[in-house]
Amino acid sequence: MYKYALKRVLIAIPTLVAISVVIFAILALAPGDPLGEFATNGALTAEIRAQIRASLGLDQPIHIRYFKWAIAFLRGDMGYSFTSRSPVVNLILQRLPTTLWIVGSAYILSVFIALPLGIISALKRRTIVDRTATAIALMGISLPPFFTGILFILIFSVNLRWFPFIYDSTLVVNDWGSFVAQLRQSTLPVLVLAAFQATALMRFTRAAVLEQLNQNYVRTAHAKGLKPWLVVNRHILRNALIPVVTLVALDIPAVFTGALVTEQVFRVPGIGSLLIDAIQRSDTPVVMAIAFIYAILIVLFNLIADLLYGILDPRVQYE
After folding, report:
1. Distance (Å, whole) CA 134 – CA 122
2. Is the dihedral of CA 224, 229, 231, 233 positive or negative?
3. Start-to-end Cα distance in the chain
4. Half-sphere exposure (CA, 13 Å, Cβ side) for 278?
5. CA 248 to CA 111: how far, in whole Å?
6. pLDDT for residue 318 is more than 60
7. 114: which of 93, 202, 239, 252 fits an S-S bond (Cβ 3.0–4.6 Å)?
8. Are 262 and 192 in contact (CB under 8 A)?
9. How far apart are CA 253 and CA 259, in angstroms?
10. pLDDT number for residue 45
11. Which residues pair with residue 80 across a beta bridge?
């Protein structure tokens, strides 16, 4: 397993280099000027704008800028924001706790909901339980998060007044009352994200379990007189969860990079909203850092999923 993991890491390195080159080239060639907000400022002369451009390194060739960025990134320096002139690392770290709290809670909730419902729906196929779960899942997949978010705001915030619809980023949790306030303002975005993620994961889990139910080894286990719950736990789930692990692992990077639409709907100051603001302002260092971190996380969790295959299914060999 160690040799296999090392081999995958060696493959991942040139993959990440290629991804970084593509992302950097796209952002460098994309329309938009990070100094566009200075264009309407009559107090800035052309010479001053040129000096600002030179201080940001925008006057250098694209390959020189890329190598400087890559070397700095390896040292842990992601550069400075063009708009705020703050270190990109600090901007990301400021938004990361909020993103982990909202998106992480939603993802954990969706997994705890989707896996049991998917398994039960498959085992009780063609029953009222299966049909109800399938109808709810199809409804959840069909409704985009921005529509569900607005619907929840109209029902639970405007009409019932149960929860606030704007996330208060200035709230400091230091007592029980502030903790309850934090839970109340987090409820709607967490539910919207959990509903959308759980429905897709539930349908995937159901399909994976159904695929295993008619296999010969399941019939053999039943013929030996094993109890149904033992057949499910020891045989069906270990094989059915292999593709589910891949889906779960590849979705985890989104926990760190935020939910773009939901954070915009509820004004959650997470990394997703930071990315949207950076794109609108052509703040290339921020966009580049977040996009490349997302690529690193996808490659990393893909490797973790591959290694988990050997734990879930002993038939998987790494030689």
Report:
1. 10
2. negative
3. 8
4. 27
5. 8
6. no
7. 202
8. yes
9. 11
10. 65
11. 87
User: How distant is the alpha carbon of residue 108 from its chain centre?
Assistant: 12
Transcribe 142-199 into DSSP letters: HS-HHHHHHHHIIIIIIIS--S-SS--TT----SHHHHHHHHHHHHHHHHHHHHHHHH
Return d(Cα 270, Cα 71) in angstroms, integer. 27
Closest CA relative to residue 95, chosen from 81, 109, 107, 115: 81
Give the 3-state secondary structure percentages of the chain, helix then strand then coil, rounded to 5: 75, 0, 25
Residue 303 burial (10 A CB sphere; 0-12, 13-18, 19+): middle
For 61, list phi and psi in degrees, rounded to 5. Answer: -60, 155
Q: What is the pLDDT of residues 48-87, one digit of tens each?
A: 666 766 766 666 777 888 888 888 888 888 888 877 778 8
User: Which tokens hold the place of 45?
Assistant: 């002369």
Sign of CA dihedral 176, 177, 182, 183: positive
| pLDDT tops 80 at residue 132 | yes
Q: What is the per-residue burial (b if ≥16 Cβ within 10 Å, else e) of 151-181?
A: ebbeebbeeeeebbbebeeeeeeeeeeeeee
Nearest by Cα to 93 from 268, 285, 256, 260: 256
Average pLDDT, the chain: 78
Q: What's the pLDDT at 286?
A: 87
Domains of the chain: 2-74 (no CATH), 89-312 (1.10.3720.10)
